[in-house]
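Write out the 3D structure for:
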Amino acid sequence: MAVDSKSKLLGFMPEDVPDWGAMLSLGFQQVLTMFPATVLVAVLTKFDVGVTLLASGLGTIIALLVAGRKIPMYYGSSFSYIAVVITTMSLYANKCFADPKTVYCADGVRIVQVGILGTAVFEILIGLLIMRIGKDALDKVLPPVITGSVAMVIGIALAGAALGMAGANWGIAFITLIVTVAFSVYLQNRGLLGMLPILLGAVVGYIVAIPFGLVDFSLIDKADWFRIPAITLPAFEDPRAWGAVLSIALIAIATVPESTAHLYQMSLYIDQLAKELGRKPIEIKKLIGLNLVADGADDIVVGFLGGCAGTNYGENNSLMAITRNYSTAVLMAAGVMAVFLGFIGKLAALVNTIPVAVTGGLAIYLFGVIGMQGVALIQSERVNLFDPRQLAIGATILVCGIGGNLGLKDGLFPFPIVGIFPQGIPAIVFAALVGILMNLLFLVLPPSMFGVKERENLN
């Protein structure tokens, strides 16, 4: 237990194991923090809520063990994959995905599972590569202008989907949006309450929707208290699933910097606590590669079970910073709680009664935030936007990704590839590939070879 010489509790380091009372209460806070966003992704993409909670908990436990309990992270559903998952399901399982009354689309989930497993392999390979050659070498191939631009595309390309859901009832959607934004702005630094704006916004929107007859409570009455989550096996036998592998795995281009940023943030807080305790700093920021391998381990779990693609949660990291609790034992306890929640049938039914307009209001805010995080990444890394190379890469990714997703039929570029993309290349994937190839061209043929002097970065 992390205490000072006067026996005053200061916090818990990753290796510390609190007493049972503290472990359970702190673990429940972690579950409460991850719950709104993790469940919302399942609702938006028509995954089974019970499986998503089960996979989140089990994936977190496995990731912590893979990292040797050195890196305190909780894993929930990632918003970054929503656009490509929606595209995949719309193409290959549209009959169930397009039906507004359907809350779970098993056929689409099974195809997406193959793609999530591809993401896991991709993340693990990147992690092992970083452990071998270092992060600086990788940054040359995937510089911030690519990762930031792809993140912008992921968020803004979802604008149509968000507005489509909001259109089910514009009034309810905008009430939900406004109160969610208000909670996120005015409840800052208010402890756990300030970390739950999405949950609070959803609750307000839900209550407002009841008098309009938009909530079907019969779903809750029909549900059993105990249910076996609808675990599915990946559709390895379906040739269409292999196209999803590349589409979904490439989204890791945007999530790798996010995961790394979370690691740096946590490293600062943990080492500050170590200093106050008179312990040696553990500098988990040096474990970038191992962190990505742990990310991949989580996606292996969710990919095989049928949960949403995962990521380590910034919300939970912030909670740990506030409570000064970095104990991996607490996070494992939270994982066990999430697993048990996955078996509560009435909880899943309650989530599935959330009106489409409410999720639309939440989506307008959340999808926009994903796009703005791409802007923040480019800004924080001081990308030289006075350099024609950087402008060319970013501009091409944005127009191909956003314009292609919103303007082309089914969001596909008309360049079919047999066995992978028989109907055409998804816009987000095409944009990322073009950006990567353009950057490689500039690495092979730098402007300096032609006597061009690099422009000064006024940032």
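The beta strands are 2-3, 9-11, 75-77, 310-312, 412-413, 425-426.
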